[in-house]
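@channel sequence for tomorrow's demo:
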Amino acid sequence: MTTYINGVPVAVAPAAHQATHQKGAADALAGTIAVTQVEVGDIVFANNWRFTETENGIALLDEKGNIIRRWENG
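structure tokens (generated this afternoon):
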């Protein structure tokens, strides 16, 4: 599945996508609002860059696993 975040195409891992739909369907039957929860590792950009968790935050990795940018918790 391809979706967009701030105009950038990203792919959500099929397992996360399926789990989101299953939860959404259950919530719809229960009459509640579905909330999508995506893990950092589930986000893969169209150019194969991806996010990963680090010890103190997250990092953006290129297709070879090199860190392009890192964000750390305050």
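heads up for whoever presents: The radius of gyration is 15 Å.
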